[in-house]
């Protein structure tokens, strides 16, 4: 991942509703959720949710798919992986023993 893409992703996540939306979509992988359901679950107006989802999509963190009359949004786990790897790629100057706690925390969630 290039620095400019990482900055876009971090910028998109730096707003409370967008961070909550992204985390909600991660919890609903792999099925995803319609925008209206995201809005309902987070108590956000639907038009506001659409704007937030568009920002997350432009940042490479959310993907959408039309199913009949609904648009289903999903967390883009490849985008999350790329961002995470960008942030920790040079972790601890290569000292694996220093990075071990970080890696240990990541393993159970996957």
Order of helix and strand elements from N to C terminus: HHEHHEEHH
Mean pLDDT rating: 91
What gross morphology would you assign? elongated
Q: Structural class, judged by helices and strands?
A: alpha+beta
Task: Order the strands across the largest sheet as they lie in space.
Answer: 1-3-2
Number of helices: 6
Question: Radius of gyration from the CA trace?
Answer: 15 Å
Low-confidence stretches: none
Quick structural overview:
61% of the residues lie in helices and 13% in strands.
Describe it for me?
This protein has a three-stranded antiparallel β-sheet. It is of the alpha+beta class and 110 residues long. 61% of the residues lie in helices and 13% in strands. It has helices at 3-13, 16-27, 35-42, 46-58, 77-88, 96-106, and strands spanning 33-34, 62-67, 70-75. The longest helix has 13 residues, at 46-58. It is built from six helices and three strands. α1 packs antiparallel against α4 (46-58). The mean pLDDT is 91.
List the helices and strands and how they pair.
Elements: H1 3-13, H2 16-27, E1 33-34, H3 35-42, H4 46-58, E2 62-67, E3 70-75, H5 77-88, H6 96-106
Antiparallel strand pairs: 1-3, 2-3
Helix pairs in contact: 1-4, 1-5, 2-4, 3-4
Short descriptors:
single chain, elongated, 6 helices, 110 residues, alpha+beta
């Amino acid at each position: 991942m290039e620095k400019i893409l990482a900055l876009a992703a971090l910028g998109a996540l730096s707003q409370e509703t967008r961070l909550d939306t992204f985390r909600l979509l991660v919890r609903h992988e792999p099925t995803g959720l319609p925008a209206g359901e995201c809005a309902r679950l987070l108590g956000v107006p639907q038009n506001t949710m659409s704007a937030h989802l568009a920002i997350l999509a432009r940042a490479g963190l959310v993907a959408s798919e039309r199913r009949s009359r609904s648009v289903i949004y999903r967390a883009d786990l490849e985008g999350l992986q790329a961002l995470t790897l960008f942030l920790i790629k040079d972790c601890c100057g290569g000292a694996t023993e220093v990075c071990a706690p970080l890696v240990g925390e990541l393993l159970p969630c996957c």
